[in-house]
C-alpha cells in the first residue's frame, strides 16, 4: 500500500491518500470513531467524523482522509470543502 500525505497552509488542510491493498483497512480504521456519519454521493463508501472534522472516502483500491481546520468555516462548510478535495484526489 502506498500512502501519501499533504498539508497545506498553516495546517488549514491535510489529506492522506492510500493506494492499493490496504486502502479498505485504512478507510475502515478511519470510520470507526464515535459519532461517525455516513456520507453519500462520493466514492463507494464515505463517512464524516465531526469531532475531528475528517471526511474519509473509499473508492475501489483508493482511500482518502481529508481534514479542514476548524478555523476555516462552519462544520457544514468544512465537510463540503473536504468532499470537493476528496473528489479531486480520487478523480471523481
Task: Summarize it.
This protein is of the alpha+beta class and 92 residues long. Helices cover 26% and strands 37% of the residues. The longest helix is centred in the C-terminal third of the chain and has 16 residues.
Could you explain the architecture of this structure?
The chain has 92 residues and is α+β, with helices and mostly antiparallel strands. Helices cover 26% and strands 37% of the residues. It has helices at 23-30, 75-90; strands spanning 2-8, 13-19, 37-38, 45-49, 54-59, 62-68. A six-stranded antiparallel sheet has the order 1-2-6-5-4-3, sandwiched between helices. The longest helix has 16 residues, at 75-90. It is globular and about 35 Å long. The two termini are 21 Å apart. The relative contact order is 0.21. The model has no long low-confidence stretch (mean pLDDT 84).
Amino acid at each position: 500500500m502506498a500512502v501519501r500525505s499533504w498539508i497545506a497552509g498553516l495546517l488549514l488542510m491535510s489529506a492522506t491518500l492510500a493506494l492499493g491493498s490496504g486502502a479498505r483497512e485504512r478507510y475502515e480504521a478511519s470510520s470507526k470513531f464515535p459519532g461517525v456519519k455516513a456520507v453519500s454521493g462520493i466514492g463507494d463508501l464515505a463517512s464524516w467524523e465531526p469531532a475531528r472534522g475528517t471526511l474519509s472516502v473509499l473508492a475501489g483500491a483508493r482511500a482518502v482522509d481529508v481534514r479542514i481546520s476548524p478555523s476555516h468555516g462552519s462544520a457544514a462548510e468544512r465537510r463540503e470543502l473536504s468532499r470537493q478535495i476528496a473528489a479531486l484526489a480520487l478523480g471523481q
